[in-house]
Amino acid sequence: DEVDPVMTPVSPSSVSQKAAEVRTMRVADTGGLTAYKHALNVQGTDGVPDGNALLKIVREPMGTPYNWVLFKPSMDELVIEDGGSGGIMELANVVHRDYNDRVLFGLARVSFAGELGLRHFYCALEWKGENVSGVKALKSYNDSLAPMADRIGDRTFTLSNSSAMDLSPQIVVDFVKKSCNVEFTVQALEHAHETEQKAIEEYWDKLEAKEKAKQDAINAEKLKREEEEREARVQIRTRKLAEAKDFREKRKSKWSKLNAPELLEDLGKHHLSGWVLLQANLEK
């Protein structure tokens, strides 16, 4: 299924006319974030894949939770900028919305449902946003074009012009048809997309339940530790109060048996001159 024509888009006006068709497809709920940014929130930096691992997930037939990835331009490594689970349509929306001033390279899995199951194709993206300007940015794009193509690997077709990203499902179908000479429909694309979204939703449900259980265990351990520390403080205070009470009782018993000079001696006041008047409190 994999060939590598570079799709040169038709005129922007023609693309915009086709894009007037249905342009969005349902995406598993990740709180308004892309799957990659949602995973960072849920798992932290240690819980998300690196560039090579994320690219491998995108290339898997039903890799979850990612079906597209964006990389920063680089001569020798895959540095993730973003990744998502909403397919090529979400990728198109994200680059226009968030990265229209950036140079990026990416890959999206494009799936179609058929009688024999799902068939998968791969759309590479060589993105130079409409607001990219300056010699440095253009040089970054040109210098990293070949190395990034090698690292991302085989693709069915490549989108290389920002105007081509004004996509609709029908345009995606047309690209695949032109690239591979196969007949698919928008319905086949949408059916495969929905199948993937259900699998991705199950993935997030399991992951979030696992992370919640982990956090609940951490919170329970924290509460247990705090309770143990509180109990230890109570025991220390109780012991100190008991020791102070015992000391006072022993001192009281001792003083009851002393005369005035002896009491002054015990108090460390024997060097004082003069006299002292003491009141005796004799308990019967």
Report on the structure:
- The chain is α/β, with parallel strands linked by helices.
- 51% of the residues lie in helices and 14% in strands.
- It is built from 8 helices and 6 strands.
- It has helices at residues 12-18, 35-43, 51-59, 87-98, 135-152, 169-180, 186-255, 260-267, and strands at residues 6-7, 68-72, 79-84, 103-114, 117-128, 157-159.
- A 6-stranded mixed β-sheet has the order 1-6-5-4-2-3, sandwiched between helices.
- The N and C termini lie far apart (107 Å).
- 27% of the residues are buried.
Total number of helical segments? 8
Strand order of the largest sheet: 1-6-5-4-2-3
Give the overall form: elongated
Helix-strand category: alpha/beta
Assembly type: single chain
What's a quick, concise take on this entry?
The chain has 284 residues and is an alpha/beta fold. 51% of the residues lie in helices and 14% in strands.
Features of the shown structure:
8 helices; 14% strand; alpha/beta; 284 residues
Set out the fold topology:
Elements lengths: L5 E2 L4 H7 L16 H9 L7 H9 L8 E5 L6 E6 L2 H12 L4 E12 L2 E12 L6 H18 L4 E3 L9 H12 L5 H70 L4 H8 L17
Parallel strand pairs: 1-6, 5-6
Antiparallel strand pairs: 2-3, 2-4, 4-5
